[in-house]
Design goal:
Chain A is mainly beta. Chain A has one helix at 2-19, and strands at residues 41-42, 49-57, 66-67, 80-81, 87-88, 91-92, 96-101, 107-108, 116-121, 124-126, 129-133, 137-142, 148-152, 160-164, 170-174, 179-185, 193-199, 204-206, 212-218, 221-229, 233-241, 246-253. Chain A has a five-stranded mixed beta sheet with strand order 11-17-16-13-14, with no helix packed on it. Chain A has a four-stranded antiparallel beta sheet with strand order 18-7-20-21, with no helix packed on it. Chain A has a four-stranded mixed beta sheet with strand order 10-9-12-15, with no helix packed on it. Classes of the chains: A mainly beta (256), B mainly alpha (322).
Chain lengths: 256, 322
C-alpha cells in the first residue's frame, strides 16, 4: 500500500510536470552563475583589500510582534518575536551585503571550506539570514522535537518543499543560480521564515552586532556593493579599492 | 424503503461534501496547503497511520482535509454502486458514476497542486471541481427524493427555467472568480469595503486589483440575478413550497454571503470568516441548483421517462401564478 502510493504520486507528478512544462522548477535549469575566463587567476592575498561597514537604522526602533506558538506545544513557551527588524546599538542586523557588480569573470575562487547551515531551533530559523555560494550546499537541520517542512521559494532556482518529521534530520540544498534573497518558510509553523542570499563569489556578509559587516580579500577594483533587507529593499553604493586598501561603507535604512 | 435510505445516503454524501469544502477552505485560509509536502503519503507515513501527536500547526488543517476527502471518496464509491444497483433511471445511474469520476479527479488535482507547490491554475481547478462534485451529489440527493419522484403537477415555466439556470451559472462563475482571487493572494488587493481605495472604481489597477474588483462586480450581478429569480418565484408560484423555500433561502444566503465578504476584508482575512464565506458560497450555489432542478422538473420527465410513479400533466407556463 505504502509503495503503491509512492509510485502513484511519482507517476502523477512526472506526467503532469511534463504536461505543465516543468513548472515545479520555475523553468530554471541551466546555471547562470558566472564562468571564469580561461586566463582567470586567484586573488593575490598580498594585494587584497577589505570593506568594513555598518548598516544603520534611522528613526524610532520598530517593534517586532510577539509570535504566538500555541499551535505546537513542542515549540516551547518562551516569548518569541519576529526578526524582521532587529536593531542593535543603532545598527540593523540581518541585512545581506554583497558585491553585486565589478568582479567580472577574471577571478578564480576556492570552494568554501565551511558549510552554510540553517538550523530550526524552538520553531525559528537560526540564523534568520544566511549567505551561500551558488553550487555549494546549504544544510538545513531540524533540532526541534517536532516536525517542520522546509519550503524554499526562489524565482531563479528550483522551488522545493522538504519534510523533516524527526528531530535531528537534515538535508542539503544547492542553488545553481545567484539570487538575493530567497525566502524560506515553514508551512506547519506559519511564523517561521528565513532568507538566503546566493552569490557566485565569496564576497558577502550578513550584518551582525551593531549592524556591522565586513567583506575581506577583495582584489583591487571598482565594485557595486548592495545591501538587501527582507522588507526594506535594496541599496547600492560604488566603491573603488586599491591594493591592500581598507574602505568603510555605511548603509542606512528607515521605515518607508 | 430501500429507495428512501438510498436518498438519505445521497443527502449524507452531499452534507459530507460541504464539510469537505469547509476543510479545504481552512487549508487555503490558513495558508497550510504545503504544510504536508508529500502526497499521497504524509511525511512518509501512510496517511491513515500518521500519528495524532504530529498533527500540529498547519498540518491539522491539511491532513484533516485529506482524511475527510478520503472518507468522502469512499462514501462516493458506495453511493455510485448503490445507485447502480437500485436506480431504474439510467441517467441517474450515470450521475452516480459521474460523481465518482469527479471525486477521483478531485483527489488527483489535490495531490498535484501540493506536488507542484500550489500553482494557481491547478488550485483554482481543485476549488472549481469541488463545487461541481458538490452539485453532483446534491443533484443525486434531489432526484432520488420522494418529492422529486412523486411530484404532482411539476411547474412548467420557461421564464423560471431560464433565469434560474442563468442564476446558477452566474453563482458558479462567481465562485470561480473568488477561487482565482484566493489562490492568487488577491483577497486584500482592495483593502477597504464597500469602497475601493476610497473610490467607487479603484484608482489604481494591477492584475490582483482587477480580479478582486471582478469578484465584487460579480457579487452585484449574482445578487441581482438571485433577487430576480426569487421575486419571480414569489410572484408567480407563491403557493409552490418546493420553489418558495429555496427562493427565500437563496435570498437569505446571498445576504449572509455579502456580509461575510465584507467581514473578510474588515477582519484582514480572518481564516474562520474566510472559510465561512467559501462554505456559504457553496450553500448559495446548492440552493440555486435545487431551485433550477425543480424548475426543470417537468422537462426532465418528458426527456427521461419512464419512472415508476405516474405524473400528472404539467401546469401550463402561462398563467402559472397561483
Amino acid at each position: 500500500m505504502f509503495r503503491t502510493h509512492k509510485v502513484l504520486g511519482v507517476a502523477l507528478a512526472v506526467a503532469l510536470a511534463a504536461a505543465c512544462g516543468g513548472s515545479g522548477e520555475s523553468g530554471k535549469s541551466a546555471s547562470s552563475a558566472r564562468k571564469p575566463a580561461p586566463d582567470a587567476k586567484k586573488v593575490d592575498p598580498a594585494t587584497a583589500a577589505t570593506i568594513k561597514g555598518k548598516v544603520l537604522w534611522e528613526g524610532k526602533e520598530p517593534a517586532n510582534p510577539v509570535i504566538k506558538m500555541g499551535s505546537d506545544p513542542a515549540c516551547g513557551t518562551g516569548e518569541l518575536h519576529a526578526e524582521t527588524y532587529v536593531v542593535d546599538q543603532g545598527g540593523l542586523k540581518n541585512v545581506f551585503v554583497y558585491v553585486k557588480d565589478g568582479l567580472g569573470n577574471k577571478w578564480l575562487f576556492d570552494p568554501p571550506t565551511d558549510a552554510a547551515t540553517i538550523d530550526q531551533k524552538s520553531c525559528h530559523y537560526v540564523p534568520h539570514v544566511v549567505g551561500v555560494r551558488a553550487g555549494s550546499p546549504l544544510e538545513v537541520i531540524n533540532s526541534d522535537a517536532t516536525l517542520h517542512n522546509v519550503h524554499g521559494m526562489p524565482k531563479e532556482n528550483r522551488e522545493f518543499n522538504q519534510g523533516q518529521p524527526l528531530q535531528g534530520m537534515s538535508h542539503k540544498v544547492t542553488f545553481e543560480n545567484p539570487e538575493v534573497l530567497i525566502p524560506f518558510k515553514c508551512d506547519v509553523h506559519s511564523w517561521m521564515n528565513a532568507y538566503v542570499g546566493v552569490v557566485d563569489h565569496p564576497y558577502f556578509a550578513v550584518s551582525g552586532a551593531g549592524g556591522a559587516f565586513e567583506l575581506r580579500g577583495l582584489p583591487p577594483g571598482t565594485y557595486t556593493i548592495e545591501a538587501v533587507h527582507e522588507k526594506l529593499g535594496r541599496q547600492t553604493q560604488s566603491v573603488t579599492l586599491g591594493e591592500k586598501d581598507s574602505k568603510e561603507l555605511t548603509f542606512s535604512f528607515k521605515m518607508p | 424503503m430501500i429507495e428512501r435510505w438510498h436518498h438519505r445516503y445521497a443527502a449524507l454524501v452531499a452534507a459530507c461534501t460541504v464539510l469537505l469544502i469547509a476543510a479545504g477552505g481552512m487549508v487555503t485560509s490558513t495558508d497550510s496547503g504545503l504544510s504536508v509536502p508529500d502526497w499521497p503519503t504524509t511525511y512518509g507515513w501512510n496517511m491513515f497511520t500518521f500519528p495524532l501527536s504530529k498533527w500540529v500547526g498547519g498540518i491539522r488543517y491539511e491532513h484533516s482535509h485529506r482524511l475527510i476527502a478520503s472518507t468522502v471518496g469512499f462514501l462516493t464509491i458506495i453511493l455510485a454502486i448503490w445507485t447502480w444497483k437500485v436506480e431504474p433511471r439510467a441517467w441517474v445511474r450515470k450521475l452516480g458514476f459521474a460523481a465518482l469520476g469527479a471525486v477521483i479527479l478531485q483527489g488527483l488535482l489535490g495531490g498535484l497542486t501540493v506536488l507542484l507547490f500550489l500553482p494557481p491554475a491547478v488550485s483554482v481547478g481543485h476549488a472549481g471541481l469541488a463545487q461541481i462534485f458538490f452539485c453532483l451529489t446534491l443533484t443525486l440527493a434531489i432526484v432520488t427524493s420522494p418529492g422529486w419522484k412523486n411530484a404532482v403537477q411539476p411547474v412548467d415555466d420557461p421564464t423560471l427555467r431560464r433565469i434560474a439556470a442563468l442564476t446558477t451559472a452566474l453563482v458558479y462563475t462567481q465562485i470561480l472568480i473568488g477561487a482565482t482571487m484566493r489562490h492568487n493572494n488577491a483577497g486584500l488587493a482592495i483593502p477597504d469595503f464597500p469602497f475601493a481605495f476610497g473610490h467607487v472604481i479603484p484608482p489604481v489597477w494591477n492584475a490582483k486589483v482587477a480580479i478582486h474588483f471582478a469578484h465584487r462586480v460579480g457579487a452585484m450581478a449574482v445578487t441581482i440575478a438571485i433577487l430576480a429569480t426569487s421575486s419571480h418565484v414569489l410572484y408567480h408560484h407563491r403557493r409552490r413550497r418546493d420553489l418558495v423555500r429555496p427562493a427565500v433561502l437563496l435570498v437569505a444566503f446571498v445576504c449572509v454571503q455579502i456580509a461575510l465578504g465584507a467581514f473578510v476584508i474588515w477582519s484582514g482575512k480572518d481564516p474562520v470568516i474566510n472559510t465561512a464565506h467559501v462554505v456559504n458560497g457553496a450553500a448559495v450555489l446548492g440552493t440555486s441548483l435545487v431551485l433550477t432542478l425543480r424548475a426543470f422538473r417537468a422537462g426532465f420527465e418528458r426527456a427521461v421517462q419512464p419512472i415508476r410513479t405516474p405524473i400528472a400533466p404539467p401546469v401550463a407556463a402561462q398563467g402559472a401564478r397561483s
